[in-house]
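Please annotate the following for my students:
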Amino acid sequence: MKIVNLLSVVAVGTALATAGCSPAEDGDDAADTAVADQATTAAAPPDTTGASMWSYLQDVSYASNWDLWPGKGRLYSGTEPHGMLLTTYMNDVAMGAVASHAGTMPAGAIVVKENYRPDSTLAAVTVMYKVPGYNSEHADWFFTKHLATGELDTMPNGMAMEGRLPGCQNCHMGVAANDYLFTGSLSTDGG
């Protein structure tokens, strides 16, 4: 767990404990409820909708609090369809799998790839989220593609880019042996 996350948990816990030990004053109930709601929202995993995923990513401040994929910095060279420059973040669950060379990502793993234009302007944010039983034909991955504004991108047929996306699934099947991940090896053999 990153120090920032740990400090946030301690701060929220302290605020809640202090609020529970002192008599409420006018207006304090709303502040206490907001602190409790923020703690619950940040801790609750997203469901399998693009809106929930985007909200979750904003709540946890992934770009400030999550690790970059090991060996990849910010704005490394990429290819289409993701963009000419990329930055890849992982939650603690995904980072643990990469660090231990687990071979596959466990339930709850989230990988976020920021997709940039050649001028370093953010174009889109693509996400892979491992949800047990969600998509067994494709290693249980849930995919989303959000525009830089946070709204879901759409395919030419108008379908929102969330869920079991044929283009994502078909492309990532090419690296099924690496649990659908192109970014780096999950195994100990370097494959």
About this structure: The chain has six helices and seven strands. The two ends are 28 Å apart (CA to CA). The helical segments are 3-21, 28-43, 50-60, 62-65, 92-99, 166-172.
